[in-house]
Amino acid sequence: MTPSLDPWACAGTAWQATPDMTLRMLTGAGLVVLAAWALGRRPFPGQRAFATLSAALALWLGLSLAEHSAADIACKGTLGLLGWSVMLLQPALWVLFLYQYLLTRPGEPPWRLRLVYIVPSLVLLALALSNGAHGLWYGPATTLTPPIAGLPRMRYDYGPLFYVAVGLGYGWMMLAYVLALRGWRSTPSGRRAQWLAFLILMSVPAAANLGYVVFGWRLFGADPTSLAFSVVLAGFAWMAARSQLFALVPVATHALFTHLPDPVLVVDAEGRVLEANIAAQALAGAPPAMGVPLAGWPVFGAALQVRLQSPAVGPPLLALPSPARQFEVHALPLGGQPPLGLLVQLHDVTVREGERRRTLQRLAEREAEHEALRDQALRDALTGLWNRRALEQWFPGECAHSEVSTLALLDLDHFKHINDRYGHAAGDAVLRDFAAELRAVVRAGDAVFRIGGEEFVLVLPGLDAATTEQRLGALQLHLAQRPLGGLPQATGFSAGITDTSAGGKVLESLMQAADAALYRAKAEGRGCTRRAA
What we know:
By secondary structure, the chain is α+β, with helices and mostly antiparallel strands. The chain folds into 3 domains: 26-143 and 150-252, Rhopdopsin 7-helix transmembrane proteins, CATH 1.20.1070; 262-352, Beta-Lactamase; 388-531, Alpha-Beta Plaits, CATH 3.30.70. Helix content is 55%, strand content 12%. The protein contains 21 helices and 12 strands. The strands form 3 sheets. Strands 4-3-7-6-5 form a 5-stranded antiparallel beta sheet, sandwiched between helices. The protein has a 5-stranded mixed beta sheet with strand order 9-10-8-11-12, sandwiched between helices. The longest helix is centred in the C-terminal third of the chain and has 29 residues, at 350-378. It is rod-shaped and about 155 Å long.
């Protein structure tokens, strides 16, 4: 008898209780509850796929129970063909669930990927449901067996399409094993129980199905595949009770690595990149092949290798052009000693470094402004010489470095007459020219100050009063031949000098002594220099 789709045959068949009916009904109900429990949790990657998988297993159990309970062979064949609607779907659902759960992708896969597993399953399902027309799924030798465990059972004549469907299912299961093993390997050793449980729970139904198809194993007289779902249910229930089913730690660990906004690389001891998250691949411009040397990675690999090999205090910086970006490099050794490799994180500090540079620039500008203001406060605006405040700040420190220093107080002769006769502009020109002449005759360590009006101070470290008097006399002779400020006649100056040879290094005392000597120079006719008594 070639099985065909004949729903009416089930309307008139007798129904019989099977030895495993209670177990099947309880397992099916438990799988429905498991699906509802999964949908009632907070969203997690693969949630809908897992719930659909649980519901599909429950439906498979129900159809299998109905097929064994029916007495009519035509009804049994109809239910057996309908069972392929979930038997073709179940392995693909395992793959979809593990794919989403492992890669932490809660959304549906792309349309192209969905077509890969939907189209072959739909084609095979259509061929299964139309078996009566071609007999390529179950052949005409399909018949009922003598009673097994009290009931007649179906002995199917497997056709070539049956083996194609079985091969497709086992192909999906192999892919599911690969995904589960990948999850097991990417999880720390102390947290692999979840992935090990997935591997076991997939293996039990697969082993039962393989034993039935290849060796003819039966349990309670029936195909043990669907009964193995009770083991799956028990395993999932045990994991849920221990809060290990959909545990956050494995998902969060992989999600942290995969979706961390910072580029992250896993580099082995030979310098090869074994893993890279999405941000690292995006920074490289394209997803490079894993296992290539770090120096061969585009955009930043060579520069990063140099930074990892360069000793630095604190995290080294990796600068990348086009566009200009800066990354702080953090390298964490993995394994023992010596380490098995490195976990390298690149933290984007472009904004921080830019802000730091702008802050330093602002501080430098403010410092320059403060320095300019300080300079303005200590300089005479007209002549550019230091002023009295500068003299008071500078003198104590400089004088302490020299055993003998001479202080000279200079005053332009008849300067009021110049202002009255030629105007203040002419007087200002004379002051500027006189300041220039003083700068020209002093040494590198000497200092010139304008302390007010037409008064100037020279501080000459290392010179005694006699030497200073000679130098000022030479300057007076020079100015007698060179008029200042463009005036028709020369402008002279009087000077009073004193030194610290007697041990006096107090500025106020030296100024008073020099002022007294200057007063004598003016009283004796101006244009001369006198030493303090």
